[in-house]
Design goal:
With 166 residues, the chain is of the alpha/beta class. The chain contains 5 helices and 5 strands.
Length: 166
């Protein structure tokens, strides 16, 4: 099982940052590949894509100005398997990526992802008051994992807010 490639380029509208790849993503080499993950359905339902994409098309979203990376590269069954050292290393690597590519918005897909990155304890959904990289909007969205007990409608409502900031 390997790490999966980032999809990064200059001029991104949104850089989506997950915890780490699922085991299924590690097997397939594509972001949000677990069939229980609602990421692709949420993007479409929120109006961020004009059609439903599949995980195998993750690289095509660069054409829409959407990129992908994770705070931790190693695939695991759950985020609970990620160690403190991995988060520390991932936080530093992620900061470098954001500074290098300077997306318009960094969308942290999971409150815990942003908490690990920023060190902040109290976090609300949506745009954060302070940007961690000047000129780049920090946006916190719920994890789309099937383990998250939010409805598709609740997830979509938060992701829909992204459109207002593009």
């Amino acid at each position: 099982m390997d790490t999966i490639p980032d999809h990064l380029q200059n001029g991104l509208k949104i850089l989506f940052v997950g915890y780490n790849p699922s085991l299924k993503s590690g097997e397939t080499g594509h972001h949000y590949a677990n069939p229980n993950n609602r990421f692709w359905r949420v993007l479409f339902a929120a109006g961020l894509t004009s059609r439903l994409y599949s995980p195998e098309e993750d690289g095509k979203l660069l054409e829409l100005g959407y990129g992908f990376t994770n705070i931790v590269e190693r695939p695991t069954r759950t985020a609970a398997e990620i160690g403190k050292e991995e988060y520390e290393e991932g936080r530093l690597k992620l900061r470098v990526k954001i500074e290098k590519y300077r997306p318009q918005i960094v969308c942290f897909v999971g409150k815990g992802v942003y908490q690990q990155y920023s060190g902040k304890k109290s976090v609300s959904w949506g745009v954060q008051t302070e940007a961690s990289v000047p000129g780049v909007v920090d946006f916190v969205a719920p994890s789309t994992s099937g383990l998250v007990r939010m409805s598709l409608e609740e997830l979509t409502a938060v992701f829909h807010q992204l459109k207002k900031h593009l």
